[in-house]
């Protein structure tokens, strides 16, 4: 709705609910937070607990001059950079409240405020939701991991920890092959070691590579994917053998100062470490260690993942019963603060979490292996919270013998040749039917 003013009469009767995402009649943050309009609840989450609401001093008809930011009567302690409840909007001066002192919905020369920007992102982001019906679904046998590999074109890969079997499928062929399995790109007999609980492809000079790790033994390996005339071969780079100094339940590969590092975390003990990944000398000392009892992290997190977002190195922790938080790993050294009652949570019941990035923004997929519900969220530009985009109903059963947080989901960009289009595709493994299912999420770019 427009946020400029024209006269001094309320635009709605007292107590009425306005459905516009950027106009409300609520006069307090608490009242805004319980309105039935979802966008108003999000708006309330942007308002700091210390920001007074209403955020303007009491106004009277035609005082001050409408649309004059310099004379806007802000409440004590409120600045023009705060999100709050500013009286005046929807072409009326009294009785309607807007989120920001000034916004493009009030003046065309102003930028969008955080609330309007979020609404635009969320509504445009709805195109990212995967189609509920897969465009392709084919039998794969037993699978414990699903991943993507950046070959000449993106490939979707599967791994089975009981046998070490690996399969790679051309991204486009896998996404639009219907019920027929596409050609397996892997050279017959090529495999990874069995027993790996973490399988993490990464790219670099001489790559692409895949880093594997076993929780049971601490063994770490790196293999290289090599394209040959016969197909894609898997060649070893190093194997540490059993290494009981790395009992990690969660492993990720963030870039720190331009170099890949291994972040390991043990959900049972809280131990964690950040170690440089060196293809020549794999037994590098820890860059940062959180193994000492006085420095261990909070235990109990089934999903712990470090990733790069623009110039930041962020740490996401999530569980199936609600707690979730986001930390910066920089500067290196301090332990992440513990989650405590009262911290923000997500709806409980999510057994799987998957992050991916699009156009410099982070997305979070949450899935319940019990109900089949899949939700998509977007991280706010300031990193303060995740906002809900939408949900789809998939089949339950996206599990493996690894159970909760089994890495059986992957998202990748698939190139369609005619017309030339980059398509975002979600791939996941459905354990009850032992099928790989692929869902198109949306077109990213065209030429």
Written description of the protein model:
This protein has 447 residues and is mainly β. Helices cover 7% and strands 35% of the residues. The longest helix is centred in the first third of the chain and has 12 residues, at 114-125. The chain is globular and about 80 Å long. The model has no long low-confidence stretch (mean pLDDT 88).
Features:
single chain; 447 residues; mainly beta; globular
Q: Terminal Cα separation, in Å?
A: 34 Å
Number of helices in the DSSP assignment: 4
According to DSSP, the number of beta strands is: 25
Computed Rg? 25 Å
Structural class, from secondary structure content?
mainly beta
Helical proportion, percent range? under 10%
Strand content: 35-45%
Overall mean pLDDT: 88
Shape: globular
What profile does the largest beta sheet have?
A: 5 strands, antiparallel
Order of helices and strands: HHEEHEEEEHEEEEEEEEEEEEEEEEEEE
**Spans with pLDDT under 50 lasting ≥5 residues?**
none
């Amino acid at each position: 709705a427009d946020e400029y003013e024209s006269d001094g009469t309320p635009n709605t009767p007292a107590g009425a609910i306005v459905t516009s995402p950027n106009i409300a009649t609520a006069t307090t943050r608490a009242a805004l937070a319980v309105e039935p309009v979802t966008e108003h609840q999000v708006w309330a989450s942007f308002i700091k607990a210390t920001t007074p609401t209403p955020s303007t001093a009491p106004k009277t008809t035609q005082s001050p001059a409408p649309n004059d930011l310099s004379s806007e009567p802000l409440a004590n302690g409120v600045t023009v950079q705060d999100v709050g409840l500013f009286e005046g909007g929807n072409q009326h001066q009294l009785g309607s409240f807007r989120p920001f002192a000034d916004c493009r919905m009030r003046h065309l020369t102003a930028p969008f405020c955080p609330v309007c920007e979020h609404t635009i992102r969320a509504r445009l982001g709805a195109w990212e939701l995967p189609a509920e019906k897969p465009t392709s679904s084919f039998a794969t046998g037993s699978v414990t991991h699903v991943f993507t590999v950046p070959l000449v074109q993106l490939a979707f890969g599967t791994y089975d920890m009981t046998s070490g079997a690996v399969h790679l499928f051309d991204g486009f062929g896998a996404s639009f092959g219907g019920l027929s399995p596409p050609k397996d790109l892997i050279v017959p007999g090529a495999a990874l070691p069995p027993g790996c609980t973490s399988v993490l492809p990464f790219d670099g000079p001489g790559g692409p590579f895949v880093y594997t790790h076993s929780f049971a033994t601490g063994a770490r390996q790196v293999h290289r994917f090599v394209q040959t005339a016969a197909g894609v071969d898997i060649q070893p780079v190093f194997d540490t053998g059993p290494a009981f100094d790395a009992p990690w339940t969660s492993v990720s590969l963030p870039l720190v100062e331009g170099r890949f590092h291994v972040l390991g975390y043990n959900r049972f003990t809280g131990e964690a470490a950040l170690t440089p990944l060196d293809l020549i000398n794999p037994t590098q000392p820890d860059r940062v260690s959180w193994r000492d009892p006085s420095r261990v992290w909070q235990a109990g997190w089934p999903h712990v993942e470090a990733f790069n977002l623009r110039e930041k190195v962020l740490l996401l922790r999530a569980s199936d019963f609600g707690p979730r938080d986001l930390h910066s790993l920089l500067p290196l050294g301090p332990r992440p603060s513990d989650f405590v009652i009262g911290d923000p949570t997500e709806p409980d019941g999510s057994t799987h979490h998957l992050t991916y990035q699009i156009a410099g923004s982070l997305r979070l997929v949450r899935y319940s292996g019990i109900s089949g519900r899949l939700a998509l969220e977007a991280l706010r530009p300031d990193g303060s919270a995740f906002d809900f985009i939408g949900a789809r109903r998939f089949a339950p059963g996206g599990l493996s013998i690894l159970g909760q947080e089994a890495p059986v989901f992957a998202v990748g960009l698939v190139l369609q040749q005619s017309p030339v289009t980059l398509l975002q595709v979600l791939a996941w493994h459905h354990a009850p039917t032992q099928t790989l299912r692929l869902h198109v999420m949306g077109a990213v770019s065209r030429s």
